[in-house]
């Protein structure tokens, strides 16, 4: 059955709707999603981190019905199993709380967060349980301690601690190394395991993990824009950090703050009782689209839309997805009778041309729709 609901992705009534025809997708019919936190679409494929059940699903064609069986399951032997590391020891074919995803259609990269590693498939997976080719953050596939030595160990240029986000421009790789309060940069997508990062964003060196409000506090997602911008969803400070040129990020604080007026401020919805046009609550993802920007304002159960990438601190959003007002959030009256008719804690956003997919995590489903065709002014 195809399930569409016009209210799911409502926008401001004074502007044209941002999303056309919302399709609800729940995954495998016998074993549907449980809190999917990562989503990616490329070349018509849909890739989902079914985080709560420790697996990644791949559909080679975008689903058009409410349920569809996956073409490939990673992290488990089939769509039925759900145990951490497939119920056994960590290995090249297991997952524990997979989160961020990236693919160019030829390679696949998965943030295997609770194994404190990132997995890379050099060829796009075609078989259930296919083993990864490269592991980052660990000396080999059979280890999974934070910073390789366990809780309390200092980070290095080769280690990871709760990496939740990954992204690439097809040549380089960025990892949101969340537990180490930093973003790691690799000048090439590694082809060998336990590779060293090239540079670090948010810390003075590879062995530091200090808490500084001028730097990412809890970087959950990192994305690169079409003009070389870099955006980091900094969850714990309810803000998104934006650099106009990713090359400057290792040397300086962000150029623009979204969600806060200055680097010292860290109020949820800027200490307001309700959300507003320029506030954020528990933001977990950010996504460039054409000349604009989408931000998963997760705690407010909405996605904020900016017509152009912001150039000033605390810039208000131009529109939103999920509510008809900027003043409506997760805990308002329209959620008291259930959340089936709206987004509920959306964690992740991806687009392929004008195809939009949203990990509607709190509702255990994926929302599929169409955005206006993007335009990019490269001048």
UniProtKB/TrEMBL annotation:
Segments spanning the bilayer are: none
* InterPro entries, per the entry: 6-blade_b-propeller_TolB-like (IPR011042), TRIM-NHL_E3_ligases (IPR050952)
An MF annotation (GO) of this entry? ubiquitin protein ligase activity
One GO term under biological process is: proteasome-mediated ubiquitin-dependent protein catabolic process
Query: Which PANTHER family does the record match to this protein?
Result: BEE-MILK PROTEIN, E3 UBIQUITIN-PROTEIN LIGASE NHLRC1-RELATED
> Under what name is this protein listed?
NHL repeat containing protein
